[in-house]
């Protein structure tokens, strides 16, 4: 069964070098699931952190579901991520290295269950970002030149 994409973090690949990614379940409340089914989520500026041997996602915004009324949870509350303990320990070991962080790349439904793709990432320096933009523009110019010849 195909994945139903809810939200992506488009800035992530621009601001970070992605070293590896892992899929995690996410603990949600009822109204949040309905909002996600309507694609009303934002991953911008969100990150994950290990606390007390559990993984939590911070700053992910899920818009309140209008029909839920007073039963809507806080849109930016921290949400528990569901991973095996061995995976959490492995990630914790890698996070102790200088400059590494966990950021969500995308949020989606897989067989009806909400999942988040987390990436172990290292922040890019300004000159890395400029180099990536230069490379992308050069490729675009090359494609244009080849297209015009045809």
Summarize the model shown.
This protein has 150 residues and is an alpha+beta fold. Helix content is 31%, strand content 37%.
Indicate the topology.
Elements: E1 4-8, H1 12-15, E2 16-26, H2 30-37, E3 41-42, E4 47-51, E5 54-58, E6 61-62, E7 79-82, H3 85-95, E8 100-110, E9 113-123, H4 126-149
Antiparallel strand pairs: 1-8, 2-7, 2-9, 3-6, 4-5, 5-7, 8-9
Description of the structure:
The chain is of the alpha+beta class and 150 residues long. The protein has a single domain (4-124), classed as Small Protein B, Chain: A (Beta Barrel), CATH 2.40.280.10. The chain is built from 4 helices and 9 strands. The protein has a 7-stranded antiparallel sheet. A two-stranded antiparallel ribbon has the order 3-6. Strand 8 (100-110) and strand 9 (113-123) form a beta hairpin.
Summarize the biggest pleated sheet: 7 strands, antiparallel
Q: Which regions have little confidence, pLDDT < 50, spanning 5+ residues?
A: none
Instruction: Supply the number of structural domains.
Output: 1
Which fold name corresponds to the CATH topology? Answer: Small Protein B, Chain: A
Gyration radius, to the nearest Å?
18 Å
In whole angstroms, the N-to-C terminal distance is 40 Å
Average residue-wise pLDDT: 88
- Beta strand %: 35-45%
Name of the CATH first level: Mainly Beta
The total count of strands amounts to: 9
Overall, the morphology is: globular
Features:
Small Protein B, Chain: A, alpha+beta, 150 residues, two-stranded antiparallel ribbon, 9 strands, 4 helices, seven-stranded antiparallel β-sheet, globular, single chain
